[in-house]
Write a structure and sequence with these properties.
By secondary structure, the protein is mainly beta. It has one domain: OB fold (Dihydrolipoamide Acetyltransferase, E2P) (Beta Barrel), CATH 2.40.50. 11% of the residues lie in helices and 52% in strands. The chain has a 6-stranded mixed beta sheet. A 3-stranded antiparallel beta sheet has the order 2-1-9, with no helix packed on it. A hairpin with a 5-residue loop joins strand 7 and strand 8. The longest helix is centred in the last third of the chain and has 10 residues.
């Protein structure tokens, strides 16, 4: 009798949002929950990052805030809660969405719920050029790299996925993105 358990485990597929970040720059963002334990001073802090939905937000509904990081676009009132909007491409060292070719009246935003042991849910919106599709990818086919990142953009990858012979897509690490946002 042949066991199919091991081959089934190696075929575990996960869903990823295919994001268009800037001209010619496409990356995958996991849709699964990411749990993380961080240390701040001597205190441990547990964080969960959960991408939940994609929204279209009118640019005139975003309130810009002074003295913030350049990649923080402002705050948005989402059902009575404050959601901080972050230009994901700019955070990663790409051209800011405000300087890309098309004029923006709406922002395509991936909403991420962030919860920790000490606070209720916080909302962060990752603003991207557009969401192309949902990809299903075999987790064992993600190629990780042990090489030192060459650019700011490379620092946010967990690996690469070879979709086909002519298309290799970087897979973003939501934990590293969350760490950059909250370490600011």
């Amino acid at each position: 009798m042949i066991s199919t358990k091991n081959s089934a485990e190696s075929q575990v597929k996960a869903q990823f949002l295919q994001l268009h970040l800037a001209s010619g720059t496409i990356a995958l963002l996991p849709t699964e929950k990411v749990s993380k334990i961080t240390r701040q001073s001597a205190v441990q802090k547990n964080l969960e990052l959960i991408p939940t939905q994609v929204l279209t937000i009118s640019a005139d509904r975003v309130v810009s805030m002074p003295h913030m990081a350049s990649w923080v676009m402002g705050a948005y009132n989402y059902r009575g809660k404050i959601m901080w909007l972050v230009d994901l491409g700019y955070l990663m060292g790409l051209v800011p969405i405000s300087r890309q070719a098309r004029s923006l009246t709406d922002y395509t935003t991936v909403m991420v719920h962030i919860s920790s042991d000490e606070s209720s849910n916080q909302l962060v919106g990752l603003v991207v050029n557009r969401v192309n599709s949902i990809e299903r990818c075999n987790l064992s086919s993600i190629i990780t790299s042990s090489a030192e990142p060459n650019t700011e953009f490379d620092k946010f990858f967990q690996g690469y996925w070879e979709k086909c012979a002519t298309e290799i897509l970087p897979v973003l690490d939501l934990e590293l993105i969350g760490q950059k946002i909250f370490d600011y």
